Amino acid sequence: MVRLFNKAPKRRNNFIRKAPAEYKGRGASFRPSGTKPAPARGGWQPLQLDKRIAFITFAFVLFGLIFTYSSSAFDSTAYFKRQILFDTLGIAAALFLSQTYDKLQKLKIFSPMNLMYVTWVLLIVVLFTRAQANVHRWIDFGFFKLQPSEIAKVTLVIYIADYLNGVSGKLTKNWRLLIKPMAVAGITLGLILAEKDIGTPTLMGAVFVFMLLVAGARLKHLAVPAVVLAPLAIQQLFFVSYRRERIFSFLDPFATAGSSGYQLVQSFLAVGSGGWFGKGLGNSELKLEYLPAAHTDFIFSIMCEELGLVRVVVILVFFCWLLIRGISLARVAKTQFNGLVIFGLTITICMQAFFNMAMAIGLLPTKGIALPFFSYGGSSVIMTLVMMGIILNLAAVDNTQNNLREDITNYKNRNK
Q1: Which domain holds residue 215?
Q2: How far apart are the C-alpha atoms of 31 and 24, rounded to whole Å?
Q3: Which residues are listed as membrane-spanning (predicted)?
Q4: Phi and psi of 189, rounded to 5°?
Q5: Which of 124, 134, 326, 344 has its CA 20 to 30 A from that of 269?
Q6: How much is the average pLDDT of 9-24?
Q7: pLDDT 10s digits, 170-185
C-alpha cells in the first residue's frame, strides 16, 4: 500500500551545522535575503501558527457557543455560561500546547507509554464510580465531570504515532511488529467498552486502523485481528438488548416511534422541518423537550431546524476543510511522528463529526457521540481544543524547520 509519509532516512549535513550567523563587515551588514535578525541569545519568540487551522478553530468555537445557547430549551443561560468556561479552559490549553508541545513530549514524564498508563488508571477508576444514566463514563469531582475516554482519544494517537515512528519501514516485512500496538489499543478500547460505550471504541478503532495503513501496514496483516474480533462485535451489537433495539429502530424508526425509535423520529422532524433556510436562530420547536439531548448528541438536528440545509452545509464544508488541511500538513511533516499525530488527531475530530451528523439524519444507529466544538460538555470541548493545539504546534514546528532550511539554502547560493 502506498504510504502517506516519506520514509527516506534523514541525511546529516556535516558542512553546515547551524544557521549562518549575521555577518558584520566594514560598514556592511549581511543576512540571507528574506530573513529577520536572529533574536538575542536566550530570547523567546512565539511559533507562527497555521492561519487556516487557527481560523477554523476560532470559527468552530464561536459558532459552538452560539448553538449551545440556541439549542438549550429552558436552561440556556446556565449551559451557555458553563460552555464559555469550558471553551476558555480549552483555548488556554490549546494556546499553551501550540507553543510548548514539541518540548513537553521530550520530557520523560510525558512519554507516550506514561500517558497510556495514566489513561488506563482513569479508565479503570471510572468503572467504580456512581453510574449515571446506567453507564460509567464520568468521574465526578463536584465542580467538574471528567470523561476519561476523551483523554484516551488523544493519548492513544500519540502512543501509536510514537511506536510506528520507531518501526518505520519495517511493518511490511514483519507483521509481528503490530502485536504490541494492537495490544495497547485493545486494552484501551476494551476498558472503554466496559463503560457500556460502543461508539467511542468504534471511532478510535477506525482511527487506529487508518494510522496503521498510512504507516505502511498491509490489509492482509489486519485481516486476522478482524476475523478474531468479529464474534465480539456481533455479541455486542445483537446480544445486548438495548443495542439490538437501537439497530432495529434504525432500520425502521417509525415502527418504534413510541419507544426505541422516538429520538431518531424527533431528529427527523427537526431536520425536515428546517427546510432549505431554517426557522431562524433560536426558533427551534423540537428543542422544547421533544427531542432528547438536543444540546448535546443531537445538536446537529437543532442546527438543521434553525439554519436549514443550505446554511448547515457550510458547517460540513468547514469540517471537510479541516480534514483536507490536516492531511496536507501531515504529508509535508518532516518527521513521521509529527505527520502521524497530525493525521490521527485530524481524522479523530472529523470522523467524530461525520459520525454525529450521520446519526442525526439516520445514516447510522443512534449513539452517544458528541459533535466536536458544538455539543455541550466539558471534557469533549477541552480535549478537542487540546487536539487542535497539538496540531498547531507540530505544524508550526515543521514550518519553522522549513524556513531554516530555506535560509541556509539562500546563504549557500549567495556565497557560491
Answers
A1: 49-399
A2: 9
A3: 53-72, 113-133, 177-194, 201-217, 223-242, 298-324, 336-361, 373-395
A4: -70, -35
A5: 134
A6: 44
A7: 887 888 889 999 999 9
